[in-house]
């Protein structure tokens, strides 16, 4: 397979929060890998900006350590890091003060693409937007990249949209959801809209139900205060799971262009029915030998915030009426795995009799680990003894199918940053999408808060609370096993 790196124009990329965790773990190593792949043309520069007093040399040292620690990629030649670091500099800048801004502006060039990555806490987004404008850095061609969380609820998301809109047009705002940058997620669109095989079956007539699981083994880690104020609904469902749901459920857009795709996603969110509280299970991991409990982790002995949520949703439109979508996500579960499973209905009549058992085709799209897809098909169990049926997976691991090409494929952050440079917003959330997602989640959160709902405790390393299993069992269905 021929490796194809699509060239981009030279760019100036300022990373506000350039000393932070996200910059060190994802953004900077990702940019280095793009540099190695030849995707950072001559004349491009990366400028770290944060309050810490640091020279550019000291910052380059930090970048070099971040690249060493968080992955340099397989194909970088010796000496490449030195060449990359020559493109990197640092300006001490305060989002809430005027220090550093004149110097930062002095580094900007007029004839290059300008991108400003807001890798800072959301309370600083407005300050950054305002200062970029006031210091004359926000040209009509410049772009801002905004990290999650985008608001805490509908009201705050609206306010944030309004603040950013004072200084930037919607076409300049890139609200990042790194799930959308994953290879498999984009493949979901390729599979749905590039093949004739699936589309005729992609509706409530043939699909029994759809499961979306994003399971993590880690706890809340050092994000205790933030997480306890958010919970799984705000931290995961409102953005990542909702985006996956949109891609799996949306109508085919007329073309693969940013607004056509996002218009269709928005229609899905707006067609989501409110969820009956019997169809929501909230959980919190307990503690014990395996480590601290959720409440210990967040240092809040009375916390009622969920570290796990499972729910059954319905989409009120012609395609999906009657097909449930089961979503679940949680921390400290038994495996780290993200998967979308489209479970088809059984054949209407079995010619093989009751002994052959019940069988369903399942198309499973694995987001992590080991990105790929499997399609479970029913075959005859080999050997004598009559017609016994067996479900076996047609398995496509991208790493195996695509070989080294898959290994070298850009990760989600790399891909999305390059999309920003190209000016392609297809894989970024539009303001109205984010607001619609909050408009759906807010009443659900308010309802359980009004009921003083207490999350069910679950064992770390399990599949979540028993009630989540019951949510499926009651409907005669079961969750797919999450495998590491
Ligand atoms: P972090 O480690 O706390 O870093 C925050 C950065 O902001 C630091 O570089 C800090 O540097 C800078 N900063 C703080 N106050 C500032 C100010 N007044 N002016 C200029 N810079 C300032 O946070 P993070 O984990 O990197 O997260 C950054 C953003 O990404 C957050 O919105 C977070 O929700 C989001 N995010 C993070 C991850 C992740 O894996 N880390 C994942 C998804 C989303 P100084 O203290 O030197 O100023």
Automatic annotation (TrEMBL):
Catalytic activity of the protein: D-glucose 6-phosphate + NADP(+) = 6-phospho-D-glucono-1,5-lactone + NADPH + H(+)
InterPro entries in the record: G6P_DH, G6P_DH_AS, G6P_DH_C, G6P_DH_NAD-bd, NAD(P)-bd_dom_sf
A Pfam match: G6PD_N
Domain of life of the native organism: Bacteria
Pathway annotation: Carbohydrate degradation; pentose phosphate pathway; D-ribulose 5-phosphate from D-glucose 6-phosphate (oxidative stage): step 1/3
Binding-site list for substrate: 178, 182, 216, 235, 331
Active site annotation, chain numbering: 240
Gene3D superfamilies: Dihydrodipicolinate Reductase, domain 2, NAD(P)-binding Rossmann-like Domain
KW Membrane (keyword) present: no
Residue ranges occupied by any Glucose-6-phosphate dehydrogenase C-terminal domain in the UniProt entry: 189-480
EC number, as in UniProt: 1.1.1.49
Keywords on record: Carbohydrate metabolism, Glucose metabolism, NADP, Oxidoreductase
Family assignment from sequence similarity: Belongs to the glucose-6-phosphate dehydrogenase family.
HAMAP family reported in the protein's UniProt record: G6PD
Name used for this protein in its record: Glucose-6-phosphate 1-dehydrogenase
UniProt organism field: Marivita lacus
């Amino acid at each position: 397979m021929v490796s194809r790196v699509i060239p981009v124009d030279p760019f100036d990329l300022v990373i506000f929060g350039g000393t932070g965790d996200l910059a060190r773990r994802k953004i900077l190593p990702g940019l280095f890998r793009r540099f190695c792949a030849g995707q950072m043309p001559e004349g491009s520069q990366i400028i770290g900006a944060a309050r810490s007093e640091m020279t550019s040399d000291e910052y380059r040292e930090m970048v070099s350590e971040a690249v060493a620690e968080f992955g340099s990629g397989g194909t970088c030649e010796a000496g490449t890091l030195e060449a990359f670091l020559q493109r990197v500099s640092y300006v001490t800048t305060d989002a809430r003060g005027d220090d550093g801004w004149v110097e930062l502006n002095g580094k900007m060039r007029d004839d290059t693409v300008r991108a400003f990555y807001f890798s800072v806490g959301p309370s600083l987004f407005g300050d950054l937007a305002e200062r970029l404008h006031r210091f004359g850095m926000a040209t009509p061609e410049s772009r801002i990249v905004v990290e999650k969380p985008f608001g805490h609820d509908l009201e705050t998301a609206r306010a944030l949209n309004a603040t950013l809109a004072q200084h930037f047009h919607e076409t300049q705002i890139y609200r990042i959801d790194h799930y959308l940058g994953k290879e498999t997620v984009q493949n979901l669109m390729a599979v749905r809209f590039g093949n004739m095989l699936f589309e005729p079956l992609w509706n409530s007539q043939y699909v029994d139900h759809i499961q979306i699981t994003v399971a993590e083994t880690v706890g809340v880690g050092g994000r205790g205060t933030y997480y306890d104020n958010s919970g799984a609904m705000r931290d995961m469902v409102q953005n990542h799971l909702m985006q996956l749901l949109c891609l799996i459920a949306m109508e085919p857009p007329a073309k693969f262009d940013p607004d056509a795709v996002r218009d269709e996603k928005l229609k899905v969110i707006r067609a989501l029915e409110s969820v009956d509280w019997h169809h929501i299970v909230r959980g919190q991991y307990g503690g014990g030998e395996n480590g601290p409990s959720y409440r210990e982790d967040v240092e809040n002995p009375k916390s009622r915030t969920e570290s796990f949520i499972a729910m059954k949703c319905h989409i009120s439109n012609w395609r999906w009426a009657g097909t449930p979508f089961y979503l679940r996500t949680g921390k400290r579960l038994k495996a780290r795995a993200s998967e979308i499973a489209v479970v088809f209905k059984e054949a209407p009549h079995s010619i093989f009799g009751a002994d052959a058992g019940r069988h369903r085709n399942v198309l499973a799209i694995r987001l992590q680990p080991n990105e790929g897809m499997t399609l479970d098909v029913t075959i005859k169990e080999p050997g004598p003894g009559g017609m016994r049926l067996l479900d076996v997976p047609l398995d496509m691991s991208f790493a195996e199918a695509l070989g080294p090409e898959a290994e070298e494929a850009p990760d989600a952050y790399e891909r999305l940053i390059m999309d920003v440079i190209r000016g392609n917003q297809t894989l970024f959330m539009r303001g109205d999408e984010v607001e619609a997602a909050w408009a759906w989640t807010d009443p659900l959160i308010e309802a359980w808060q009004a009921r003083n709902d207490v999350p069910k405790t679950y064992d770390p390393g399990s599949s979540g609370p028993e009630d989540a299993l019951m949510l499926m069992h009651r409907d005669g269905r079961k969750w797919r096993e999450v495998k590491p």
